[in-house]
Design brief:
Blueprint: H1 2-24, H2 29-51, E1 54-56, H3 59-67, E2 74-80, H4 89-106, E3 115-121, H5 126-131, E4 139-143, H6 157-160, H7 164-175, H8 188-206, H9 217-232, H10 235-241, E5 247-248, E6 255-256, H11 267-292, H12 297-325
Parallel strand pairs: 1-3, 2-3
Antiparallel strand pairs: 2-4, 5-6
Helix pairs in contact: 4-7, 9-11, 11-12
Length: 336
């Protein structure tokens, strides 16, 4: 018992000194350090953003400024593969739209330190791709100011497309930050329209003494068919949604021209559908020609067989594409 008392009395000065040190420390030292760290991160992000609308990040920067707390700002990250050897044309197209959106935010009157746009290239941050189990590019993710990203914080690029306006709407839903997209002026459409009007005007002037071709039913029918093919193949959807031309798998390099979902499509897919519809229509025209013409019977038989072959084969091809997009569709014809 005596030994315990002696030992306790010998530790008393140490305890007193330790207590005095704790009393001398400023209150909330850890909180102040956290605030200083947050201030440094925000200041650094603002400095980078002042130089470039989209901040390039490697693995270390991503973990420090995007993943690690403290953070009171939201970060939009585009995971991409822009190096030429990756041959990702979709990445380049998506990057152009992303730059337009980031510039619109950077030079708007509402710009603040509450939202930043960043990019992680695979060749500069492969470890980030591995950490997030990400095997495709481009991918857009939102990292909120508080908490971890949820499922809705990953942009559904395959279904919506990557147009700046669609990205801005998604960001508004996730952050309540409204971004009005300002695109640089593009006069190519105006120039093309002026050239077309000039061409038509010049043609009418040259043929001013013989304008019977204006009443040509075949010409107007061909023009109407071109419009119908363009609309039924999804060209208007492409114009609104801005989908990629095709998709290249970064793992095996395989290029997909047909989207696997019924909710989206590629530009190449609409071109394929346009050609298939045109081929089927040509077959129907040939069948009608064979039935209504009064020429040689043998020639009419050949025209009939060619028309029937066009309709059967290309309709089967069109139906197989429909089956690949609407999974579970039970019907097929010749081609599965």
């Amino acid at each position: 018992m005596a030994s315990v008392l002696v030992k306790s009395s010998s530790n008393l000065p140490v305890l007193l000194v330790f207590s005095l040190v704790l009393l001398c420390l400023p209150p909330g030292g850890g909180q102040k350090k956290k605030e200083n760290l947050l201030s440094e991160k925000v200041e650094q992000m603002m400095e980078w953003s002042s130089r470039r609308s989209v901040i390039r990040m490697n693995g270390d920067k991503f973990r420090r400024f995007v993943k690690a707390p403290p953070r009171n700002y939201s970060v939009i990250v585009m995971f991409t593969a822009l190096q030429p050897q990756r041959q990702c044309s979709v990445c380049r197209q998506a990057n152009e739209e992303y730059q337009v959106l980031a510039n619109s935010w950077r030079y708007s009157s509402a710009f603040s330190n509450k939202l930043f746009f960043t990019v992680v290239d695979y060749d500069e941050g492969a470890d980030v791709f591995q950490q997030l189990n990400m095997n495709s590019a481009p991918t857009f993710m939102h990292f909120p100011a508080k908490g971890k990203p949820k499922r809705a914080d990953t942009f559904d690029l395959q279904r919506i497309g990557f147009a700046s306006e669609q990205l801005a709407k998604w960001i508004a839903d996730r952050t309540d930050v409204q971004i009005r997209v300002f695109r640089p002026p593009n006069y190519s459409g105006t120039i093309a329209l002026a050239l077309l009007v000039s061409l038509v005007g010049g043609l009418l002037y040259l043929r001013r003494n013989n304008l019977e071709f204006i009443y040509n039913k075949t010409g107007w029918a061909m023009a109407a068919l071109c419009v119908v093919f363009a609309m039924t193949s999804g060209q208007m959807w492409n114009h609104i949604r801005g989908p990629p031309y095709a998709h290249k798998n970064p793992q095996n390099g395989q290029v997909s021209y047909i989207h696997g979902s019924s909710q989206a499509q590629f530009v190449a897919e609409s071109h394929i559908i346009l050609l298939l519809n045109a081929a089927i229509t040509m077959g129907m025209v040939l069948l009608n020609e064979a039935a209504t013409s009064k020429g040689d019977v043998g020639k009419r038989r050949i025209i009939c067989l060619v028309g029937l072959g066009l309709v059967v084969f290309f309709f089967s091809f069109l139906l197989s594409i429909f089956r690949s997009k609407y999974h579970g569709y039970p019907y097929s014809f010749l081609i599965k």
